[in-house]
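I am writing to request your help with a piece of structural work I have in hand. What I wish to show you is a protein chain and, alongside it, a tokenised description of its three-dimensional fold. Could you please explain, in whatever detail you think fit, how the structure tokens follow from the sequence? You will find the record immediately after this paragraph.
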Amino acid sequence: MNQQDHVFECFLADENATVAMGTKLSQVIDKGAVIFLHGNLGAGKTTLTRGVVKGFGHKGNVKSPTYTLVEPYELAEQHIYHFDLYRLADPEELEFMGIRDYFENNSVCLIEWPEKGAGMLAQADLEITMEYVESARKITISANTENGITIINKLKND
């Protein structure tokens, strides 16, 4: 199997399409996942996360945890943790907040700016890159693990 088989790409026309992609992603995650979110400020990482969280059944607001580092969503069927590490000064801070406890087998961890937590984060099942292409956004989802490959295959077959 070549590396391209482990990648899913598409274009998202607007905010609604980005939320819908997040919802679609939530529907193909069976047993939790660690997802790294890459992209410039305003590229749609939090918007995509909103779709994932709502796709799992959350009814309230989904806000960026820029100042709190993590926003937990403890749902009946799924624990979701949305991290925004943009303001993280030192990866060691993650150790003090008990970062390892968040990476349970059944949890979904969506991590914006993962490079700021280098050395402290679990391996990503998926790495998502969002970038502007003219007036749309291009999303590229790459698998790093067997779980990630399973998710990519379900996205492609959906």
Q: What stands out?
A: The mean pLDDT is 90. Residues 90 and 116 are 7 Å apart (CA to CA).
